[in-house]
Design a protein that fits this description.
4% strand, Serine Threonine Protein Phosphatase 5, Tetratricopeptide repeat, elongated, 2 strands, mainly alpha, two-stranded antiparallel ribbon
Length: 275
């Protein structure tokens, strides 16, 4: 009987601790309060102090203990924020996406969608000086970031985060374009001279990444590559298209001058009068 009483007391003590009281967290003892709002506030204070593990403990407590309160939804979102700040981007993305899926009418659903998209951007390789330039690295997460930001912009066109999403998208598009130019430079090396591959890469930039500051470089690159391929007509077309699209650009006059020195496309042959 004494043993049973000891076991019962131990179970009751553990149960009490699971509800309120002191828990040993990775960043110190976590003192849980008896209401959701206070625990959420404690979590926010911990976040401000960058005690993200402690903050996550409070948010998880609110989410689990008070699942039917609106504050539980706030706690879900803050759990995602805690993972984001700890650079646990895969876990954060999963939380943000689940929040958006489960609470599509929540007033902060656009925030969840934006932050979920932003996790891809945060996983893009850096330009740390011991590593190759970003333009030489795998571009999977760069493309994922652009796709995610594009989807966010389409789904939430009125969001307050649209301007920031556009800024991220522009940076990502620049990185993707620079990667294509890096590959084009690789193929144009005097030891390779693979001009069709150069033209293909430059055309990708012209088609998908126009207007981000690389158009002049692309146009003159196409001009040079087409001449190397003995195709002055296409070389002229590349310059004329650039000058027509960006007439006020610094290189527009030079492009038109060079284009004038090249043959234009032959006019179509007249139809046979007998047909």
């Amino acid at each position: 009987m004494k043993l049973r009483a000891v076991i019962t007391l131990a179970v009751l003590s553990l149960t009490a601790c699971a509800s309120f009281g002191t828990f040993a967290g990775q960043e110190g003892d976590v003192q849980f309060a008896s209401d959701a709002e206070t625990n959420l506030h404690k979590g926010d204070v911990a976040m401000e102090g960058k005690n993200y593990t402690e903050a996550a403990s409070y948010f998880e407590f609110v989410k689990t203990k008070y699942p039917y309160l609106d504050l539980a939804k706030t706690a879900e979102l803050r759990l995602a924020d805690a993972d984001f700040e700890r650079e646990r981007f895969i876990e954060a993305r999963d939380r943000y996406q689940n929040f958006a899926r489960l609470h599509p009418t929540h007033p902060r659903v656009d925030y969840a969608a934006f932050r979920g998209a932003l996790t891809h951007y945060k996983e893009i390789p850096s330009d740390f000086f011991l590593l190759p330039p970003a333009s030489e690295k795998d571009q999977v997460e760069v493309r994922n970031a652009l796709t995610a930001m594009t989807e966010f912009t389409r789904a939430h066109p009125e969001s307050e985060f649209i301007a920031e999403a556009k800024k991220v998208s522009d940076e990502v598009r620049l990185r993707l374009a620079e990667h294509e130019l890096y590959v084009a430079d690789f193929y144009s090396n005097p030891n390779r001279k693979r001009w069709p591959a150069v033209i293909a890469r430059l055309n990708v930039v012209a088609k998908n990444y126009s207007g981000i500051g690389l158009d002049e470089r692309v146009a003159f690159g196409l001009y040079d590559a087409h001449l190397k391929m003995n195709d002055p007509v296409k070389a002229r077309e590349a310059l004329e298209q650039y000058a027509a699209k960006f007439p006020d650009a610094p290189g527009a006059k030079k492009a038109l001058k060079l284009a004038a020195e090249l043959p234009a496309a032959a006019p179509p042959a007249p139809a046979d009068a007998g047909t």
